[in-house]
């Protein structure tokens, strides 16, 4: 089926689910789905679709879930026009290299957006401005290098953000300040060398922050400022040799901290004094040869420390 022609599905007004996966579809004519007014799920994965015209999805006013994964799709203006009730969009394994301001126009009710293993290099400012209802945004395994200050503006309901396995080297200082409801942030396996002060300000609801497998060497004091709800912080497998005083301040909810597999020369006295609820501290192969008693100042006896000291 190389082409889905206009009015192909006339007379199927009560149809709710339509699976057109693995059909070798190359082209969809505008109006192809007109008449499918009750459709809630449309599967178009594993086809050969390269572009979507503005009226491709005309008539699908009740569509909730659209799967376009594994196509040769590229972005075009208003490509999702007419999908005002869509809540889930899967674009995994498409060949999209950039996202622009008009890519997701009209998707006011979208709550889940999956874009794993595309070829995204750039995200234009304002790309996500219209996604007021979005709760999950997956951008893992792409080619992103920089996150600008306003990249994630316009998503006040976002709860989960996955930027893992990209080429990110730098985070904008105010990139996340509008994500007050975010609880899970995965950014492991990137190339970040430095965390600047207040880079995570605004993430007041964040519970999990995964920064493992970076090239992290330096964290400025107040790097984690504003993360009063953070429970899990993974900084393992980096190149950190020194942790400045003030890096771990204002983390009253922190329960789990992993500093394993770094190049630490020492931990300064009272470095964890503001982490009074810490229960697990992992220092396995962290580079440390010894630990001073005051490192654990203000920690409870129930704190479990996992370590293996480096040999002299």
UniProtKB/TrEMBL annotation:
UniProt entry keywords in alphabetical sequence: Leucine-rich repeat, Repeat
InterPro entries: Leu-rich_rpt, Leu-rich_rpt_typical-subtyp, LRR_dom_sf
Signal peptide: none
The keyword Ligase is annotated on this UniProt entry: no
Keyword Repeat tagged: yes
Name this polypeptide is given: Uncharacterized protein
């Amino acid at each position: 089926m190389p082409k889905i022609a206009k009015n192909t599905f006339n007379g199927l007004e009560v149809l709710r689910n339509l699976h057109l996966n693995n059909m070798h579809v190359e082209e969809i004519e505008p109006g192809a789905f007109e008449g499918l007014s009750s459709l809630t799920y449309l599967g178009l994965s594993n086809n050969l679709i390269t572009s979507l015209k503005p009226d491709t999805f005309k008539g699908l006013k009740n569509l909730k879930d659209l799967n376009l994964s594994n196509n040769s799709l590229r972005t075009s203006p208003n490509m999702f026009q007419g999908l005002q009730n869509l809540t889930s969009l899967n674009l995994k394994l498409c060949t999209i290299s950039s996202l622009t301001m008009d890519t997701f126009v009209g998707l006011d009710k979208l709550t889940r957006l999956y874009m794993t293993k595309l070829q995204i290099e750039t995200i234009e400012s304002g790309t996500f401005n219209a996604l007021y209802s979005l709760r999950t945004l997956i951008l893992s395994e792409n080619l992103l290098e920089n996150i600008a200050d306003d990249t994630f503006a316009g998503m006040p309901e976002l709860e989960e953000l996955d930027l893992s396995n990209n080429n990110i080297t730098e985070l904008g200082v105010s990139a996340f300040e509008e994500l007050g409801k975010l609880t899970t942030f995965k950014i492991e396996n990137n190339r970040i060398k430095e965390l600047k002060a207040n880079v995570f300000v605004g993430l007041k609801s964040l519970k999990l922050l995964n920064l493992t497998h970076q090239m992290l060497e330096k964290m400025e004091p107040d790097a984690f400022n504003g993360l009063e709800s953070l429970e899990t912080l993974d900084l393992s497998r980096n190149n950190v040799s020194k942790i400045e005083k003030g890096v771990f301040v204002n983390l009253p909810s922190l329960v789990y901290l992993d500093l394993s597999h770094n190049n630490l020369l020492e931990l300064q006295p009272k470095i964890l004094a503001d982490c009074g609820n810490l229960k697990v501290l992992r220092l396995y192969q962290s580079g440390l040869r010894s630990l001073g008693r005051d490192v654990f100042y203000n920690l409870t006896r129930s704190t479990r420390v996992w370590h293996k000291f480096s040999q002299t």
